[in-house]
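Suppose you are handed a protein chain with no further information: no name, no annotation, nothing but its sequence. What can you learn? This example shows the usual starting point.
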Amino acid sequence: MKTGWKLAFLLAVIAGVGTWLAVDHRTWGRVENVLKQISGSARAEESRPSRAWVSELADRTPWDHLISLTPDQFEGIGVRTVAVKEQTFPTLLRLNGTTDYDPAKLTVVRPQLDSRVDNVLVDLGSVVQAGTPLLDMFSADLAVAKNDYETAVSQHARDKKVLDYKAPLAETNAIARKDLIEAQNDEAKSLLQMKLAKDKLLVFGLTEKEVADVPNEDGVKKAKMILRSRTAGIVIKRSAVRGNYYDSKDELMQIAPLEHLWVRGNVSELDADKVQVGQKLKVVFPYSALTIDGKVEYIDKAIDMDSRSAKFRSSIPNPEGRLKAAMFVRVLLEVPPKPGQTVIPRGAMVSVDRVDYVFVKQPGKNYKFERRPIIVVKENNDFVVVSETSLGNLELKPGDEVVATGSLILEQMYEDRVMAEGEFLS
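A reasonable first move is to predict its three-dimensional structure. Written in structure tokens, the prediction is:
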């Protein structure tokens, strides 16, 4: 009886405690921890977690950002280093350009007096020489000028005849000295008037022969003239229309010289400081295998805001007139070496996120490599010219050893280490 009562009481206590623990989760958690500690006391030493990582964390030193290789890794990867060299040769800057006529040498054909175009004698694109007839002109003002010239010629002939008559008489005192002086003055005055009238016709565009033939012209012929080219070149613009009237302000034609051409081009903002006035260059015509030497004659003082480039100009001879305007050309410009600039193999450079790097071997008998940022001045398939200016604290100097083969593998190792360090520090 007593045993049954005790068993019933024990079951009631257990049921009550279980109900209480089911409701109070926090108390159950504490009890669970106590039970685990009691039940696991015998196995405490063997179940305790290892704390070796704590001591490893305490002993770990900060990464020096060097890639360290073992001799076996160095040989297995096939790393090859070369010495950095000083730049001793000029680099070649390749630019695009086009030919153009020299606007400073353009000849604008204008009438020198009010006149009408009776006939156009040349076409657009015609090659002309100095004296080539361009236009048949008709001008009433020209007829007046020719008449004035004829009058001046006649007056001078009369005054010259009077002077020739009076000069011998004056020597024999047959006439007064005053009469001779008066005759001399009249002849000199009429000679000047004749010269001025002739010069006026020459200014209008007549030749010496045409002026000499003026006294032989009659009527309408005096109003006609041929307007000739004053220079050799090519007609690049023709505005004259047959039958139209023009004055001295109107442009009838434009003639461009052919003995030389301009070469215009653009140089990017990155290379603009490498182009200086007076630098030698070569102009290559890719479609004719022709190369002509020249030099830089002008470069803009400001960068164009839209193209981010500067315009430059050169000129080249064209004695045979074979070259035309608007021809595409390649401009090769030699940039002399700059003190402090160095040269490395193309394979030594690694580009990451638009920044260029090289791996520099540390001094001594070790296999440690530093990733160093560089500024590239010029590059091609074989070599890279590095600026004397550095992005970091250390610049690349002649004699430094850089990785020429295996730089991509070192870059991958560097990035992996950066990721690992980032995970460790996070």
